[in-house]
Amino acid sequence: MDKDARFAAYVLADDEGRVNVPEQKTTGGSFIVVRKGYEHPEKAVQMLNFFYDDIENTTEEDMENTFPEVAEYLEQGVDDSTKPFNIVVLPMQTYLEDYQDVQAVLDEEMAVEEITNSQVRQKLKGIEEYIENPEDASTGSWSSYHSRIVGWGLMNKVTEEDRFNWAKAAYVVNTPTMEQKGANLIKLEEEDLIKIITGAEPIDYFDTFVDKWNNQGGKEILKEIEEELAQQE
């Protein structure tokens, strides 16, 4: 609602400049489930192949002729939110490679046609539009630039500087209290941290949030985790 608002991507680094990131599970927590007895379970796999193989490797001309609805969505800067499921089946380094391809084209070191990912080629149009005229660029172009250049660019920079510290989670399984109170705690985290970010509460409010988190089940969860880790040792 604020026309003067400006968005930027940041990384949270420690005192030594390292960016601590927890390792994600292979699945990332997303699954496609087909109900037992469904006549065509293969359709789920066919849809995956369509979105992450057929479309990804379709030329721009073929996209407009063969998948016009998809081409229209890409033109508007819309992507995963329009798919029947929001799950990514791509290598972890995909975004870095896509950024490097886009930057190479912008630096005139690579031709657009050399980009194999059709969605990235489409986003490139919006990125160039934003660079040429950021004040009058469409929302889709703004989104393409800030996600693909600003966000991915920052990820690429930290990667090249070898500043990521991939921390292995000590415990990844739910505890009894997590199952009972986890949803409420996640809601509490989202609401209270947004209050701090937007300025509705001062940074010192974080201490209040911690007390609330502990009192609403967090302390019990930590105790359960500590007990389980002690047994594993």
TrEMBL record:
Protein name (database record): Extracellular solute-binding protein
Organism listed in the record: Oceanobacillus neutriphilus
